[in-house]
Amino acid sequence: MREDLLHFIWRHNKLPTNQLCTTDEEPVLVKSAGVQNRHSGPDFFNASVAIDGQLWAGNVEMHLKSSDWYAHHHENDTNYDNVILHVVWEDDVVVFRRDGSKIPTLEIRNFIPKELLAKYTALMEHSRTGFINCEKDFGGVDPFLLESWLHRLYMERLEHKSELIFELLNKTKNNWEAVLFTLLAKNFGSKVNGQFFLDRATELDFAMVRKTGQDLHQLESLLLGHFGLLNEPDCTDGYYLQLVKEYHYLSNKFELPRSMSKPEYFGLRPPNFPTIRVSQLAHLYHHEIQLFSKCMETSSLKELYDLFDVEAGPYWDTHFTFGKLSRKSTKKLSRKFIDLLVVNTLIPLKFCHAKYQGQEVDEGLVGLLSEVGKEDNSVIANFDGLGHKTKNAFESQAKLELYNNYCSKNKCLQCVVGTHLLNRNT
């Protein structure tokens, strides 16, 4: 038994209204369940409940056991002074407010419809063996209901991604160009080196990128050195030594913080090696130093493909790492990689910039994301196996949010699909 079932029952009026009474045998009639509060404080605000003929307006708190009131120290919290009813699964202790007045308690374990409890138990027990709890019924969910829910989920995902962006904006004193550079560095680092690249980019004053941007050799030296890729004391490669010399000059001139650690190569395909990605990043900023402004102006996927149509330097045509020759190939940003930048950096940044300026979020963002192909991973493959095939990145991003923050955490009763299934025929 979980508290979220109590919330669901209360929110959806699943209790037999003519039979309810408190533990003191006072009749209870719920006029209004109130508004659910998912933050700190009582579980439902502004409820309206008649107790023994007296109408009360206030808040409702819910627990599995009455004694949880004291376990959570509500007796000392002013936020709970206006609780008019304590709804519990099991009443095991009398509960009082701070002023010593007794709080009416409604024990609901004997009032819950057996069919509802059986459906809930079956749903939650399935989590032990399946991909998601509702996988047997997911394919039969109304497409319109699912589409609406996916839209809300994607907005939630954007809000979550906004946290890092606004944190970076604060650190850079509202320098959007610097924020974009830092986020791109994180994404160019991929899952393996993303956090390392993010940390290093945060430590680099973006003014240094601007100052060296017109000189490609300086910029590439700066970034390769700053991201820990010029720490090969035994390397005698001529190009490597040129970069080291230039980086030492820059780091001494600008008193740059040097990296003593290195990014990882293990688990990466050669085109994703950090040497290649940093060179591509250097070439991108050499061509477009005002990149943020250009990104904000673009409104189509094709424009973004053109904007990010860059490749690593000529040295990397025959190398993946310093001093080791490889078969010649141009190291260009692929469409698939640019898609990842659009999904993980550019659209969240457009979203945050609109919020920062007090503008409504443009539905064009969803349209732009819908142009991008769906992500290829096990979560999306499993969802596709249940029906409602994923058509694009908008849907795959929403389903990732659904899986990560609802399905995998058993928050079925906070999910539109879960509440719909539990509401059917009960």
UniProtKB/TrEMBL annotation:
It comes from the Bacteria. This is DUF2851 family protein. It comes from Flagellimonas sediminis. The lineage of its organism: Bacteria, Pseudomonadati, Bacteroidota, Flavobacteriia, Flavobacteriales.
